[in-house]
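Listing S7. Sequence submitted for prediction.
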Amino acid sequence: MEKRVAVLRGDGIGKEVTDAAVAVLQSIGRRFDHQFDLKYGLLGGEAIDQAGEPLPADTIKICEESDAILLGAVGGPKWDQNPSHLRPERGLLQIRKHFELSVNLRPVQAFKSLLAVSPLKEEVAEGVDMMIVRELTGGLYFGEPSFHDDNKAVDSLVYTREEIERVVIHAFELAKLRRNKVTSVDKANVLESSKLWRKIVEEVAERYPEVEVEHMLVDAAAMKLITYPAAFDVIVTENMFGDILSDEASVITGSLGMLPSASLRVDGFGMYEPIHGSAPDIAGQNKANPIGTILSVAMMLRSSFGMIEEANAVEEAVKNVLEKGNFTSEFINIGKNILSTTEMTEKIIKEIEG
């Protein structure tokens, strides 16, 4: 099979971890006889420096001609004082909106070999395996009007039935493939948008009688994530709540470097990226953890390309490498064998190719 992938390395360690993920993708191509055609584009700070804007038209064209997008990370203090339209993060919001990437998936899984570095007690973190499904193109981040002056600020929280329904349906479909449980997180005791959200969840739930549904207020969900996270299977929620809760849940694993994500359009086209930032303090030192980006490749293989066996091969390789005591530098307190970015990548490729 042949697939075209747009590669946006971005800023800081984004370049290093993306190169690692590309090497793993090429390894999958060799093992399973696939051809991955890679096209590189600019996004974020590097795009501002070279093209004068965070999301150049050339990058959009490359992505439009591709079957999926692989992204590293964007941003850094170099651009912190730029006006809002010239911030690296603006490019990320623009690409999500342009391609209608309305559903964000963040899996959170506690690896047994990393339980010792979780900030939670091992017995609390053990067995955590959840998928957070976040609406990505609506809500407060995109609502109009939105403005501020010295005396007043306004942000508008707007949701349509279509925006809510498509992300909720995706969550229920995922639950069918997992443990048949959906937790819908809202603030229906206060917000009108959450009342509509809860109503639509109830309507969709009628189509999935095999799936258990629970409604949870966002403050209660935030508490349960750190007291009993293993109770969650699929969490579905709106944009801002999902942004906050997914970052909270990410620390369960002990490192942001471990976690992948996917931002999907309804037809399966998606952008795949680790959840961590560009970490400019360690950029270029070959010490960044590439696993979050490598696992993002696994999500790409499964969700956009339908390559289930190939995705499983990547995930199994990562698990095996970790269980053999191989870690990157942030795990120096527990690691038997501390590896560089390239060394970790080579270990994972060796596991894939046997």
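Caption to Listing S7: primary sequence and predicted structure tokens for the chain studied. The chain has a mean pLDDT of 96. The first strand starts at residue 2 and ends at 10.
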